[in-house]
């Protein structure tokens, strides 16, 4: 990727941030705040998008952003009052701006009609207020920074006829002589402009002969050190036109007297000494000249000028304490003003903290993470071999290995932190979604977001969008009531949907909460019965009823709306979440709303696991699922049915599942009293107990995808490589329960669910 | 030659850096006026290029503060902005701006503008 393309990528990244800022600023405005800094920030966001887009020639984006910016500028200036109505328009305008940005990113085109309609709306807002005529006139003018800008991207300066070639080329036939008379005022120096440089620029246009008139210099005691007393008369022979000559003085327009006159060819200019000679002669004693930084082709001896300037500064009155920095102009030559930059300033010591971020190809990080995974495995192997040789834990080699393990862990954490990103990138797309869904369903919804800075591995972030999108849609479509119903229920017409991210127990938790009606349990139950998902006589707790919505084939929408009814039910959401090693659960209170809670591992690269032996196999059970491990006492295990058994744990019974049986390693379960029991909490909050033969220990393992290397296996989440080099399977505990249920009919599911 | 760029847009900072480094300048970048003043006192600059619309301290305020500082009152300041209306340009000049560059710029024009104000 060349540098320009990289910057373009940066631009689009920045656009995402700017659009997020824009939106959050507008949302603050929507809540009634007219804080000047907020309005300014909104303006700046649009302004910066436009500025960057201009640099990359993204014309449609520039044009649209310009209209938006013009209106924001009016609001910023207080000429237009941004009432709630207008802020809503601005929010929609921000959405269209986002469309333009993504169209520009993909090289496509934004929806022309939507954009044109929005432009018309924005212009109506802009011109409807204050001074319509003025605004209308100002708009196109402001858009085109200079006349030269109209037809190309280079609208920085009017094209001055200056190029290196011209210096080498023989003077063109139409070369003419000009007399340029130039008298700076003190204001010119105050703005750090510099006559010597202007003369140098003139010299780039052609041959020059300069004359310095110093008659205005008063006696020393009457001299204002910051005054301006000099006049230059420059005879210039060039084929450039008057415009090009005047352009040289563009920056000092108004800060000097300037006359540009075309001469008749026979006029001769040899009567005055040239400035360099003049200055050289004026020098009382020679001073060391600073290194000339001026190009060699300069017509003027800048080095000499600067030398003179330095001398002037050194001889300067007491007001100039420090030659290197003192900007005080001296009588002899106003060039002294410029001398500040000429004396040796320390070479640029680039401060370390200027570059706050570096860009790295994600593939390199992925590779690094893979390597660290190998390192973890290798370290485990080493530890195992050392242990096999019978070294005592207090031996040097064992202690060294412990340190290695800690270092490995630190490296792993560090590498994972590189790939960690705040969930903001996902969250920032959501306000728009909420607006759109709300308007489609004719509901009023306000989104509150919390914990946008919560960090999680990039690979997880990428897969958060779909579940969050679906949960939010669901919350508005099914959760929130219509404004009328809400008012009837004594609630504000506007519903509130809260989206929050937080870290809890080594996992990231995403909560989507609405203040709607809550799950209509009798209706959910009836639908489940109608669809044959549960038996009519099934006894379900409230939570179990709520969780029915996650069953495949369940949809509560009476009429399939185009919002939630896209054929993607909550069961699909749950499955994709589980695919990430996550869980999703719901809690609901009638009349008060529902909360969906999604919890995911912070990374898909490693996991902390319990290594167990089952029927001669080594398996890994994710530690996050395990509540506790125990060895049952005789009497705590009670048979249930022909094959099943339950375990009495603290006044309650949980179902026992033999891992070996569930995965098909053996036909009959071992006696739980002879093995170990892992008490598991499933993602819906239900508990059950897994029976294994023995526990080897807790270990951090590197996750290797089974699907990528072999194929998906029911009940198995992934694989890992253990310290002895063997492959071990990582158990998917929730799927294990499902595998166990497989032969069961729906009625049996109910009996299980009802346990 | 050391150049301090002051712009709140990362894209613009990168554009400036690319163009200026290619032209052989040393570049120090600041993200707003306040940061610009810090960078200036820390690293100095032979030429300053600043945006106008920025949070914390905008371009006008930044220029005024630089001009108040005895050490940098004679340092050339180029205003870099999409603003083209004469009022803004005038205000920047009254604050003490040496010259201006209208965005979007191309690298040649940028370097030319620097040459016009700096030795």
What does this structure look like?
- The complex is a heterodimer of chains A (755) and B (119).
- With 755 residues, chain A is α+β, with helices and mostly antiparallel strands.
- Chain A folds into 5 domains: 147 residues, Four Helix Bundle (Hemerythrin (Met), subunit A), CATH 1.20.120.160; 178 residues, no CATH class; 60 residues; 179 residues, 2-Layer Sandwich (Heat Shock Protein 90); 148 residues, SH3 type barrels, CATH 2.30.30.
- Chain A is built from 26 helices and 22 strands.
- In chain A, helix 1 packs antiparallel against helix 4, helix 3 runs antiparallel to helix 4 and helix 3 packs parallel to helix 5.
- The longest helix of chain A has 28 residues.
- The radius of gyration of chain A is 38 Å and the shape is elongated.
- With 119 residues, chain B is of the alpha/beta class.
- Chain B has a single domain, classed as 3-Layer(aba) Sandwich (Rossmann fold).
- Chain B is 46% helix and 19% strand.
- Chain B contains 5 helices and 5 strands.
- In chain B, strands 2-1-3-4-5 form a 5-stranded parallel beta sheet, sandwiched between helices.
- The longest helix of chain B is centred in the N-terminal third of the chain and has 13 residues.
- The mean pLDDT of chain B is 85.
- At the A-B interface, helix 1, helix 2, helix 6 and helix 9 of A face helix 1, strand 2, helix 2, strand 5 and helix 5 of B.
Helix content of chain B: 40-55%
Count of distinct structural domains of chain B? 1
Query: Segments of chain A where pLDDT lies below 50 for 5+ residues?
Result: 129-173, 267-273, 284-299, 316-355, 557-567, 741-755
Please report the two chains with the greatest interface, counting residues with C-beta closer than 8 angstroms to the partner's C-beta: A-B, 69 and 55 residues
What is the average of the pLDDT values of chain A? 75
Architecture per CATH nomenclature, i.e. the level-2 architecture of the largest domain in chain A: 2-Layer Sandwich
Strand portion of chain A: 15-25%
Total of DSSP H or I helical runs spanning 4+ residues of chain B = 5
Strand order of the largest sheet of chain B: 2-1-3-4-5
Distance between the termini of chain A: 60 Å
